[in-house]
Structure formats: structure tokens, C-alpha cells
Design goal:
single chain; globular; Tetracycline Repressor, domain 2; 76% helix
Length: 287
């Protein structure tokens, strides 16, 4: 058990992920309401379900990146032998079973729409683990790989909405909330891998697409976040932060040593995009 606690401390810091899922849940709770929901169980179920999803995703990424990490990140838990890789694989499959079980629990608690979405997300997560059975092809195309893995943010953001406002789940704001989250998350994912000194085995975006190609992709995915924010009327918060991040990315294309600044701004923007609906309504930004 001690080695798993160490793993969590190093690779799944609870405060960081708690902030992430609270941001997502709060936006889901406020999307169709001007105030917080009084349904305590909905908050608890959303937080637990999202935490379980991200923990499973973290384990999968650690498992899949093992060969690369042996060379590029030998200090991480799996490469240094803290946890046996076979045990991680077993934990992944047990986690997927647990997620399906959580979906079944939602049915029993009279949340059928939430159950359907959560089980869908669980199955999609399993396909991500198998890299959609085209791993040798998709592994050579980081941006396509990123799209197939990031698009899950749309149904994932629908999960808390399905708990708080199931009757309005399929309305347009739910889709645009997912788009806002996707833009923020994908921008962060691109911007955290801009170092020109990364090990070649990692095949980062600048290594594969060059600086101009990477910048173009950052601008593209950032626009998704802007479009979603405009539709949801959370643009007073999200658009300036996204524009600041994109401006920093342009500066990085000219001065690559600025990559850490871009990453920090993208991190702030990510949290703002995830919690945008809550922050805008609670603090009445732009009202």
C-alpha cells in the first residue's frame, strides 16, 4: 500500500486533481441555474466519478509511456520499479470494472442519463488505453492522437450536467460547455510540451511539426475555447486569458526559451475554462 501512496503523491496529487474536478462540477451545476444546486448527492457523485476517471487515465498514461519513460523519465514510479508494470495493468482493468460498476450505481440512484454518459466515457477510456487498436499508426501522429484523446472532454463535461439538470442535458449549452473545456484542456496539453530540449524519444509537437506547425495547432485548438466561451457568455473571463496564452505562444515561436511562461498561462487558462460558468455567474462577471 505504501508504494501506491507514494505513486499518488508523485503522479496523482490529490489537491491538483480535486481543484480540477471541483471546477468541472461547479460549471455543470451552474450551467442551467443561477445558483448552486441543493442536491448534495449530485455534487458527491460528480466529484467521485470525475476523480475516478482521471485516476484511471493517469494510470493508463503511465503504463503506455513506460518504454519512453525508461529513457526520458527514469525517476518516475514505474521506470524506477516502485510499482510493477503488471500490477498497474491489473489495476487499470479493475478500475474500468469499477467505473462500469459506478455507472450501474447511478442507475440504482435514479440517474439513468448520468449512468449512460459515465459508462460511455468508461468504454471510450478503454478504447483510449488500446489506442483504438491502431496504436502503431496513431502513435506517429501526435496531433491526431491528441484529438482522439481530448475529445472525450465533451461527454465528460456532460457528466456533471446530467446529474444537476438531466432534463436539459442535450441542449446546446451542454455541447458548448464541452467545447470550452476542450479548448482549454487541449491548449494546455499542447503548451506544456514546448521545450526544445525534450528527449527525442518523446516526439513532442515541436519535434514532429516544427515551431510553425505547433503554433498553428495551438491557435486552432485555442479558437475552440474562444467559440465555446462566446456562446456561453463567459467570454469576459475566458477570451482575455486565452488570447494572452496565444500571444505568449506566438512569442515562444520567436523566443523558444519562453516555453515555461506559455505553460503557466495555459494552466491558468485551463482552470478558468473549466470553472468559467461558475465563476462568471457567482461573481456576476459581465452582468
Amino acid at each position: 500500500m505504501a508504494h501506491w501512496i507514494t505513486y499518488i503523491q508523485e503522479r496523482f496529487p490529490i489537491p491538483t486533481y480535486a481543484l480540477l474536478v471541483i471546477a468541472m462540477t461547479s460549471s455543470g451545476a451552474y450551467l442551467y441555474s443561477e445558483g448552486p444546486s441543493s442536491t448534495t448527492s449530485a455534487w458527491a457523485l460528480s466529484l467521485i466519478g470525475l476523480l475516478l476517471f482521471f485516476f484511471e487515465l493517469r494510470l493508463m498514461d503511465e503504463y503506455k509511456d513506460y518504454e519512453k519513460d525508461l529513457i526520458a523519465h527514469p525517476h518516475r514510479p514505474l521506470p524506477r520499479g516502485l510499482i510493477d508494470r503488471k500490477h498497474v495493468r491489473t489495476a487499470i482493468y479493475l478500475g474500468l470494472i469499477g467505473m462500469i460498476g459506478f455507472g450501474a450505481l447511478l442507475v440504482g440512484m435514479q440517474h439513468p442519463k448520468a449512468a449512460g454518459i459515465y459508462i460511455f466515457n468508461s468504454i471510450y477510456l478503454g478504447l483510449m488505453f488500446k489506442e483504438f487498436f491502431i496504436g502503431s499508426w496513431i502513435g506517429e501522429k501526435p496531433f491526431i492522437y491528441g484529438v482522439t484523446h481530448q475529445v472525450v472532454l465533451i461527454p465528460l463535461m456532460a457528466f456533471p450536467v446530467s446529474l444537476f439538470a438531466p432534463q436539459q442535458l442535450w441542449n446546446a449549452p451542454t455541447l458548448f460547455l464541452g467545447m470550452t473545456a476542450l479548448g482549454g484542456f487541449f491548449t494546455y496539453e499542447l503548451c506544456r510540451k514546448l521545450s526544445m530540449n525534450a528527449h527525442p524519444i518523446l516526439k513532442t509537437y515541436p519535434q514532429v511539426y516544427g515551431v510553425p506547425g505547433t503554433l498553428l495547432r495551438i491557435l486552432l485548438v485555442g479558437s475552440f475555447g474562444i467559440l465555446g466561451a462566446l456562446y456561453l457568455h463567459v467570454d469576459k473571463l475566458c477570451v482575455p486569458l486565452m488570447c494572452l496564452t496565444l500571444a505568449a505562444a506566438i512569442a515562444w515561436s520567436l523566443r523558444p526559451h519562453l516555453h515555461k511562461i506559455v505553460e503557466v498561462l495555459a494552466t491558468i487558462g485551463l482552470l478558468a475554462h473549466l470553472a468559467s460558468v461558475f465563476i462568471t455567474k457567482f461573481f456576476r462577471i459581465g452582468v
